[in-house]
TrEMBL record:
Record Pfam families: ANF_receptor
UniProt keyword terms in alphabetical order: Membrane, Transmembrane, Transmembrane helix
Source species taxonomy: Eukaryota, Metazoa, Ecdysozoa, Nematoda, Chromadorea
UniProt subcellular location: Membrane
Residue ranges annotated for the Receptor ligand binding region domain, each copy included: 1-118
Organism annotation: Ancylostoma duodenale
Protein name from the UniProt record: Receptor ligand binding region domain-containing protein
Domain of life: Eukaryota
GO cellular component terms listed in the entry, alphabetical order: membrane
The UniProt record lists the keyword Membrane: yes
Protein backbone atom coordinates (compact mmCIF):
# COMPACT_ATOMS: atom_id res chain seq x y z
CA UNK A 1 0.00 0.00 0.00
CA UNK A 2 2.78 2.38 0.94
CA UNK A 3 4.48 1.73 -2.41
CA UNK A 4 1.42 2.92 -4.35
CA UNK A 5 0.62 5.76 -1.96
CA UNK A 6 -2.65 4.15 -0.86
CA UNK A 7 -3.77 5.10 2.64
CA UNK A 8 -7.39 3.94 2.79
CA UNK A 9 -8.85 0.55 1.99
CA UNK A 10 -11.89 -1.63 2.56
CA UNK A 11 -12.00 -5.21 3.83
CA UNK A 12 -14.74 -7.57 2.66
CA UNK A 13 -15.20 -11.29 3.19
CA UNK A 14 -17.65 -14.17 2.99
CA UNK A 15 -19.70 -15.09 6.05
CA UNK A 16 -19.20 -18.75 5.11
CA UNK A 17 -15.50 -18.52 5.94
CA UNK A 18 -14.14 -20.18 9.08
CA UNK A 19 -14.24 -18.00 12.20
CA UNK A 20 -10.51 -18.70 12.49
CA UNK A 21 -9.77 -17.21 9.09
CA UNK A 22 -11.14 -13.90 7.77
CA UNK A 23 -12.50 -12.47 11.07
CA UNK A 24 -9.13 -13.12 12.73
CA UNK A 25 -7.36 -11.62 9.73
CA UNK A 26 -9.54 -8.50 9.99
CA UNK A 27 -8.72 -8.17 13.69
CA UNK A 28 -5.00 -8.40 12.90
CA UNK A 29 -5.37 -5.72 10.21
CA UNK A 30 -7.24 -3.44 12.61
CA UNK A 31 -4.44 -3.78 15.15
CA UNK A 32 -1.82 -3.04 12.49
CA UNK A 33 -3.72 0.04 11.33
CA UNK A 34 -4.12 1.20 14.94
CA UNK A 35 -0.33 1.06 15.30
CA UNK A 36 0.18 2.97 12.05
CA UNK A 37 -2.02 6.05 11.78
CA UNK A 38 -0.98 6.51 8.16
CA UNK A 39 -3.51 3.88 7.06
CA UNK A 40 -7.27 3.66 7.52
CA UNK A 41 -9.81 0.88 7.05
CA UNK A 42 -12.60 2.98 5.57
CA UNK A 43 -15.12 0.15 5.32
CA UNK A 44 -15.40 -3.48 6.43
CA UNK A 45 -18.24 -5.92 6.01
CA UNK A 46 -19.13 -9.46 5.03
CA UNK A 47 -21.79 -10.92 2.81
CA UNK A 48 -23.88 -13.35 4.87
CA UNK A 49 -24.34 -15.89 2.09
CA UNK A 50 -22.91 -16.33 -1.37
CA UNK A 51 -26.04 -15.36 -3.29
CA UNK A 52 -25.81 -12.85 -6.12
CA UNK A 53 -28.25 -10.49 -4.37
CA UNK A 54 -26.21 -10.43 -1.15
CA UNK A 55 -22.93 -9.89 -2.96
CA UNK A 56 -24.39 -7.12 -5.12
CA UNK A 57 -25.59 -5.36 -1.97
CA UNK A 58 -22.09 -5.42 -0.48
CA UNK A 59 -20.50 -4.23 -3.72
CA UNK A 60 -23.02 -1.41 -4.07
CA UNK A 61 -22.22 -0.14 -0.58
CA UNK A 62 -18.51 -0.64 -1.20
CA UNK A 63 -18.63 1.53 -4.34
CA UNK A 64 -19.61 4.50 -2.18
CA UNK A 65 -16.91 3.94 0.43
CA UNK A 66 -13.65 2.72 -1.09
CA UNK A 67 -11.57 2.09 -4.19
CA UNK A 68 -8.85 -0.15 -2.72
CA UNK A 69 -10.40 -3.43 -1.62
CA UNK A 70 -8.88 -6.28 0.40
CA UNK A 71 -10.86 -9.45 -0.30
CA UNK A 72 -10.71 -12.50 1.96
CA UNK A 73 -12.16 -15.71 0.53
CA UNK A 74 -10.63 -19.16 0.31
CA UNK A 75 -13.01 -20.40 -2.40
CA UNK A 76 -12.00 -19.81 -6.01
CA UNK A 77 -15.56 -19.91 -7.34
CA UNK A 78 -16.65 -17.22 -4.86
CA UNK A 79 -13.77 -14.91 -5.82
CA UNK A 80 -14.64 -15.42 -9.48
CA UNK A 81 -18.34 -14.75 -8.85
CA UNK A 82 -17.65 -11.57 -6.87
CA UNK A 83 -15.29 -10.12 -9.46
CA UNK A 84 -17.68 -10.91 -12.31
CA UNK A 85 -20.43 -9.09 -10.41
CA UNK A 86 -18.04 -6.18 -9.83
CA UNK A 87 -17.34 -6.12 -13.57
CA UNK A 88 -21.06 -6.10 -14.37
CA UNK A 89 -21.53 -3.20 -11.93
CA UNK A 90 -18.78 -1.11 -13.53
CA UNK A 91 -16.38 -1.67 -10.64
CA UNK A 92 -13.54 -3.17 -12.69
CA UNK A 93 -11.64 -0.13 -13.92
CA UNK A 94 -8.52 1.90 -13.25
CA UNK A 95 -10.36 3.44 -10.28
CA UNK A 96 -10.38 0.15 -8.37
CA UNK A 97 -7.75 -2.25 -7.10
CA UNK A 98 -8.57 -5.57 -5.47
CA UNK A 99 -6.09 -7.26 -3.16
CA UNK A 100 -6.87 -10.95 -2.74
CA UNK A 101 -5.11 -12.04 0.41
CA UNK A 102 -5.25 -15.75 1.14
CA UNK A 103 -3.35 -18.24 3.25
CA UNK A 104 -2.89 -21.75 1.92
CA UNK A 105 -3.75 -20.88 -1.67
CA UNK A 106 -1.39 -20.81 -4.63
CA UNK A 107 -1.92 -17.37 -6.09
CA UNK A 108 -4.10 -17.46 -9.20
CA UNK A 109 -3.99 -21.25 -9.33
CA UNK A 110 -7.30 -22.79 -8.29
CA UNK A 111 -6.40 -26.46 -8.65
CA UNK A 112 -4.16 -28.90 -10.48
CA UNK A 113 -5.71 -31.48 -12.81
CA UNK A 114 -3.08 -34.19 -12.45
CA UNK A 115 -5.08 -36.56 -14.68
CA UNK A 116 -4.73 -34.22 -17.67
CA UNK A 117 -1.51 -32.56 -16.46
CA UNK A 118 -3.19 -29.15 -16.48
CA UNK A 119 -3.24 -26.15 -14.16
CA UNK A 120 -6.71 -24.77 -13.44
CA UNK A 121 -6.78 -21.02 -12.86
CA UNK A 122 -9.11 -19.09 -10.60
CA UNK A 123 -10.91 -17.35 -13.48
CA UNK A 124 -11.92 -20.67 -15.08
CA UNK A 125 -15.46 -21.86 -14.39
CA UNK A 126 -15.48 -25.43 -13.09
CA UNK A 127 -19.25 -25.86 -13.22
CA UNK A 128 -20.94 -28.13 -15.74
CA UNK A 129 -22.20 -26.58 -17.89
CA UNK A 130 -19.81 -23.63 -17.70
CA UNK A 131 -21.16 -20.08 -17.88
CA UNK A 132 -18.92 -19.11 -20.82
CA UNK A 133 -17.52 -16.07 -19.00
CA UNK A 134 -13.91 -17.11 -18.47
CA UNK A 135 -12.70 -14.23 -20.67
CA UNK A 136 -14.70 -11.71 -18.62
CA UNK A 137 -13.39 -13.24 -15.41
CA UNK A 138 -9.81 -13.12 -16.68
CA UNK A 139 -10.18 -9.41 -17.47
CA UNK A 140 -11.56 -8.82 -13.97
CA UNK A 141 -8.68 -10.65 -12.30
CA UNK A 142 -6.24 -8.42 -14.20
CA UNK A 143 -7.32 -5.66 -11.80
CA UNK A 144 -6.22 -7.68 -8.78
CA UNK A 145 -3.16 -8.44 -6.71
CA UNK A 146 -2.76 -11.74 -4.88
CA UNK A 147 -0.88 -12.06 -1.61
CA UNK A 148 -0.21 -15.72 -0.88
CA UNK A 149 2.03 -17.83 1.34
CA UNK A 150 2.19 -20.60 -1.30
CA UNK A 151 4.24 -20.33 -4.48
CA UNK A 152 2.32 -20.36 -7.76
CA UNK A 153 5.10 -22.38 -9.37
CA UNK A 154 3.37 -25.38 -10.96
CA UNK A 155 5.67 -27.97 -9.42
CA UNK A 156 5.21 -26.50 -5.97
CA UNK A 157 1.46 -26.35 -6.55
CA UNK A 158 1.33 -30.03 -7.48
CA UNK A 159 3.25 -30.83 -4.30
CA UNK A 160 0.86 -28.75 -2.21
CA UNK A 161 -2.12 -30.42 -3.88
CA UNK A 162 -0.73 -33.88 -3.09
CA UNK A 163 -0.02 -32.83 0.51
CA UNK A 164 -3.55 -31.42 0.85
CA UNK A 165 -5.10 -34.67 -0.40
CA UNK A 166 -2.92 -36.65 2.00
CA UNK A 167 -4.07 -34.57 4.98
CA UNK A 168 -7.69 -35.09 3.95
CA UNK A 169 -7.24 -38.89 3.71
CA UNK A 170 -5.52 -39.11 7.11
CA UNK A 171 -8.35 -37.17 8.77
CA UNK A 172 -10.72 -39.98 7.68
CA UNK A 173 -8.63 -42.60 9.46
CA UNK A 174 -8.56 -43.44 13.20
CA UNK A 175 -8.28 -41.82 15.65
CA UNK A 176 -9.79 -38.84 13.79
CA UNK A 177 -12.46 -40.67 11.75
CA UNK A 178 -14.25 -37.52 10.59
CA UNK A 179 -16.10 -39.37 7.82
CA UNK A 180 -18.10 -37.55 5.16
CA UNK A 181 -17.46 -34.17 6.78
CA UNK A 182 -13.88 -34.47 5.49
CA UNK A 183 -15.02 -34.67 1.87
CA UNK A 184 -14.26 -31.65 -0.33
CA UNK A 185 -17.88 -31.73 -1.41
CA UNK A 186 -18.85 -31.00 2.20
CA UNK A 187 -16.68 -27.89 2.22
CA UNK A 188 -13.54 -29.49 3.66
CA UNK A 189 -10.44 -27.28 3.85
CA UNK A 190 -7.07 -28.17 5.36
CA UNK A 191 -7.58 -25.59 8.11
CA UNK A 192 -10.47 -27.78 9.38
CA UNK A 193 -7.86 -30.36 10.43
CA UNK A 194 -7.02 -28.22 13.47
CA UNK A 195 -10.59 -28.46 14.76
CA UNK A 196 -10.76 -32.22 14.08
CA UNK A 197 -7.50 -32.79 15.97
CA UNK A 198 -8.69 -30.66 18.89
CA UNK A 199 -11.96 -32.61 19.16
CA UNK A 200 -10.06 -35.89 18.95
CA UNK A 201 -7.79 -34.86 21.81
CA UNK A 202 -10.79 -33.81 23.89
CA UNK A 203 -12.39 -37.19 23.20
CA UNK A 204 -9.40 -39.39 24.01
CA UNK A 205 -7.85 -37.39 26.85
CA UNK A 206 -10.42 -38.47 29.49
CA UNK A 207 -9.59 -42.09 28.72
CA UNK A 208 -5.87 -41.38 28.95
CA UNK A 209 -6.44 -39.55 32.22
CA UNK A 210 -8.35 -42.50 33.72
CA UNK A 211 -5.66 -44.92 32.54
CA UNK A 212 -2.97 -42.76 34.16
CA UNK A 213 -4.91 -42.64 37.44
CA UNK A 214 -5.28 -46.45 37.50
CA UNK A 215 -1.58 -46.90 36.76
CA UNK A 216 -0.60 -44.41 39.44
CA UNK A 217 -2.89 -46.13 41.97
CA UNK A 218 -1.42 -49.55 41.12
CA UNK A 219 2.14 -48.28 41.42
CA UNK A 220 1.39 -46.60 44.75
CA UNK A 221 -0.21 -49.77 46.10
CA UNK A 222 2.75 -51.90 45.01
CA UNK A 223 5.14 -49.42 46.60
CA UNK A 224 3.20 -49.55 49.89
CA UNK A 225 3.27 -53.35 49.88
CA UNK A 226 7.01 -53.34 49.28
CA UNK A 227 7.71 -51.28 52.36
Amino acid sequence: MDHFGWTEFAFIYSGDESAERCPVYLTDLQRAVFDNSKFTISFSTMWRNDTEAEMRLVLSELSQRARIVVLCSSTSSIKRKLLLLARDMGMISDEYAYIISDLGTAGYISDVDSLHNRTIYVWEDQNVPADGRDKDAFEAFQKTFVLSDVSDDSRTSVGFSVFSDDVQKKMKQPPFSCGASCDKGSGWKNENAVSVIEHTIERVMPGISRFAQVEFHSMSKAEDQGR
